[in-house]
Specification:
By secondary structure, the protein is α/β, with parallel strands linked by helices. It has a single domain, classed as DsrEFH-like (Hypothetical Protein Ychn, Chain: A). Helices cover about 40% and strands about 15% of the residues. β5, α6 and β6 form a beta-alpha-beta unit. The protein is elongated and about 100 Å long.
Length: about 200
């Protein structure tokens, strides 16, 4: 309740100013807008975000298996590939226009998940060959097949723009249907996901 602060002469009645009341419709509209903003930024139980940092076959297999399984359950899935994990999305090498360091990194890193080593018992590539043979014998889908399934299932595959710049990876070296975005994009997705994983 507000009152005038002006001094009145003796015998004069002090002016009464009723409090300003926001109309109920405006208050309801403000509350609805606030609830809408909270709902838009709240984590969703049906959303999964994975950050794939590793460039090792067994870890990539685990990540793609989780991503495709989540998609098959009707969940919204985003997989953000950065640094060595970005090689999962490469399908060819391009040396034109690259400096010597970028060419060396390109030569020393795998192209696609099928050519990646394993994190344990790699033995100069023998471990990778054995793992792939064992998977084939047990009718387990390969990493390349899982990547294709992920695309078909609507999984959002995102390549880290900063990593591409640092390592000299060109967009035309990547497989199709890939989004390119920065760390801020990953953080927005992760903050709105009910499940986040780092691989």
């Amino acid at each position: 309740m507000e009152y005038s602060t002006e001094h009145s002469s003796p015998g004069q009645q002090q002016e009464f100013r009723p409090p300003t009341v926001t109309p109920i419709e405006q208050r309801l509209e403000d509350l609805e807008a606030q609830v809408g903003r909270l709902e838009a930024s709240a984590p969703r139980a049906d959303k999964v975000t994975l950050l794939v940092f590793s460039g090792e076959l067994d870890k990539v297999l685990a990540g793609l298996m989780i991503a495709t399984t989540a998609a098959s359950m009707g969940m919204a899935v985003t997989v953000f590939f950065t640094f060595w994990g970005l090689n999962v999305l490469k399908e060819k090498r391009t040396y034109s226009g690259k400096d010597i360091k970028e060419r060396m990194i390109d030569m020393m890193t795998p192209t696609g998940p099928g050519s990646m080593g394993v994190s344990q018992l790699n033995m100069l590539g023998a471990g990778r060959v054995m793992l792939k043979q064992m998977m084939k014998e047990k009718d387990v889908v390969s990493a390349d097949e899982l990547l294709a399934i992920a695309k078909e299932s609507g999984v959002q595959l995102t390549a880290c723009s900063m990593t591409m710049q640092v390592m000299g990876i060109e967009e035309n070296e990547l497989t199709d249907d890939i989004e390119i975005a920065g760390a801020a994009s990953y953080l927005v997705d992760a903050s709105r996901s009910g499940c986040t994983l780092f691989i």
